[in-house]
Write a structure and sequence with these properties.
Layout lengths: L1 H20 L3 E14 L2 E12 L5 E11 L4 E11 L4 E11 H6 E12 L3
Antiparallel strand pairs: 1-2, 2-5, 3-4, 3-6
Keywords: Signal
């Protein structure tokens, strides 16, 4: 009987881990726009649209990588967002880069590390 209880506990723990392993936050689109170039520096603004597909609120740590044609990361920025259940949000931030680096920019890549908010 004791092994049955142990088996039930292990099964429920694995179900919780499987639920937590699924991704709730998704970046559906992202963009970077040049705003100004002066004194060899470019000011730009990046935006990312994040969707929460789960029935719980989540914190998301966004790692925004500015990448050139060869895949080299020119700049990296971090941003934290809080999304309520089944919500969407735009994250944005201004950055300043050397103008030469901005000219090499091919794309931005946004990675999300999520954490379920305590209830």
């Amino acid at each position: 009987m004791r092994w049955l209880l142990t088996l039930a506990l292990l099964w429920s723990a694995s179900a919780v881990q499987a639920e937590d392993a699924s991704s709730c936050l998704d970046v559906s689109e992202n963009n970077v726009e040049e705003l100004n170039t002066e004194y060899g520096m470019t000011t730009a603004e990046w935006t990312a649209h994040i969707d929460n597909s789960c029935d719980a609120a989540y914190d998301g740590t966004l790692t925004v990588k500015f990448v050139d044609e060869e895949g080299e990361v020119l700049h990296e920025a971090l941003e934290v967002v809080i999304l309520e259940q089944r919500a969407s949000q735009d994250a944005r931030r201004r950055i300043t880069l050397p103008a030469d680096s901005f000219k090499k920019l091919a794309r931005i890549q946004v990675d999300v590390k999520e954490r379920k908010r305590p209830t």
